[in-house]
Amino acid sequence: MNPWPVIPADVVAWFRGVFADANRHVCERLANLPNIRETSLDDGLIEALIPNSAPTLLPSGAIIRMDTHNIGGLRRLGAPHWDWDFPQRRRWETADIAILVFVYRQDKLVAMKIGLLQSKRLFPTNHDVEDEDEIGFLHGMNAFIRRDGQQAAAALHRTYSFDETCTFAAIQAGHRQVELIDTLNRDFGKAVFYLLYAPPELPYAVTYPLRKRIRVGDMPVGNRVVDADNLHRALVELNDGQSPTFSLLKSACVGRDWLLETWAADLLLTCQVGQQFDDSNDDRVRYFLERRSGPIGAALAASITLPGEA
Question: Which one of 45, 108, 173, 190 is most buried, counting C-beta atoms within 10 A?
Answer without folding.
Answer: 45
